[in-house]
C-alpha cells in the first residue's frame, strides 16, 4: 500500500500538536509548520511545541460532574498526546490538572520529533498555503501572524474579530512571606495531602482589600490602539482591572473569594478576601497568581501586587501581560468537519475557531487530525456525537452558536443536548451532570469503535 500524501498543519500549539499526533498515529504523514523560534511572539518564551503561555492548569479533572473533566476523559480515551503529557507532568492542584509547563512542552516536542511520520518545519507560512497542499489544518491559535491573519481575512471576507487575552504573573516561592500566607486548597479538596495543600493563600482584611481595589483602579495600564477599541475580552480571562471596574466587590466574589479557607495563623479571623497562588513547576519554586491576568504596566503592576499580604517582597519570574487574540466567525465559515466552506482543503482547529482554553483547543485539534486523516485514507469519518464533550464543542462552533453574536466559549454542560427524565434545576444538577457524562462516555466509545484504524 502506498504512503498517503502528507497533511500540512500550520501552528505547533496545543491544537496543532494534537492534530499532528492523531494523524500520524493513524498512519498519515504530517508536516508540522511552526514559526518559533525563528519568529517569536509577544507571549511565547521558547520554541517548544504546545508551550503554555497563560495558566499552567487544565482545570477540573472531575469526569463525572464537570464538563472540562469529561473532555479530559474523552481525550485520554482517544489516545491524546496533550493529555498523556499532562498526566506525565502533573502537579498537585486539589482536584484540578495542573502541570509543570516546561516539562510538559518538552515532552510534547520530544514525542512529535521522535514520531517517524512527523516532520517539523521551523519556518513561517506567510499566507494561505499553496494550492498543491490539498489537506491543511490551520491551528495558529490566538497569536496568528499578521501575514497569515490578513490572508485568512481576505479569503473569508469577515471583519476582524478580536478579544484580549491577559497573562497572570508568576512569583518565586522563596520571596513569599509564609508567616502571612498558608497552603490550603479550597474546602481542603483533594485525595492526597499534596492536593489538599496545592494552593498558597494570602488573606486581606476589609481595609487592605479596599486599598488594593483603589490601587488597581488608579494604576497605569496598557493602552490600546485605535483599531483595537472595539475588541472584546473573554469573560473567563478578564484582567483584574476590568473586574474591579465592574464593581468593588467583583474580585471578592471572583478570584479573591475567601470561601472554604481557614487561616491557620489566625483561625478565629475570617478573611475579607483571599488571593490564591498555584504551583507552576515541578520543583515548586514558582507560583502563579490565580485569576490575576492584568494589563497594568510592569512598574505599576509590581507595586500593586506587592500590596498583597505575603507578597510585600515578591520577586516575579514573569509579570502579567496582554495580547490580541483573533478568531473566526466559525458558525458562518466552517462546516461540521471544521473545513472552510469556501476552501474545503483548509481545516481550522484550536482557539482560532472560537473555543477557549488549552483543553478545548487541543480537543478541536484531536478532532481535526482524525477527520483529516480519515479523509486522506479514504475512510470518511463522521464527527463525534453532539452528546460528547468534543462533539458539543464542535457543534457549537460549526453552527450551534448564533453567528451574529458568536464569542469564544469554554466547554460546559449548557452546550450538551438535554438528558430526558432527569430532574432539572439546581437540586437536580448532580444527577443531571452524571447523566451527561455517562451518556457522553458511551457515545464516545461508539465513535472510536467506528474508526478502529484511527484508535
Number of domains: 2
Low-pLDDT sequence parts? none
How many β-strands, per DSSP? 17
Helicity, in percent? Answer: 25-40%
Strand composition percent: 15-25%
H/E order of the elements? EHEEHHEEHEEHEEEHEHHEEHEEHEEHHH
User: What is the helix tally?
Assistant: 13
Backbone CA Rg: 22 Å
Structural class based on helices, strands and sheet pairing: alpha+beta
Main beta sheet strand tally, sense and closure: 6 strands, mixed
Average pLDDT level:
89
Based on the structure given, which CATH architecture of the largest domain is correct? 3-Layer(bba) Sandwich
Give the termini separation: 20 Å
| CATH fold label of the largest domain | FAD/NAD(P)-binding domain
What is the assigned CATH homologous superfamily of the largest domain?
A: FAD/NAD(P)-binding domain
Shape: globular
CATH class of the largest domain: Alpha Beta
Q: Give me the side-by-side strand order of the main sheet.
A: 6-2-1-7-17-16
Main location: cytoplasm
Pfam families: GIDA
Function: Catalyzes the folate-dependent formation of 5-methyl-uridine at position 54 (M-5-U54) in all tRNAs.
InterPro entries: FAD/NAD-bd_sf (IPR036188), MnmG-rel (IPR002218), MnmG_N (IPR040131), TrmFO (IPR004417)
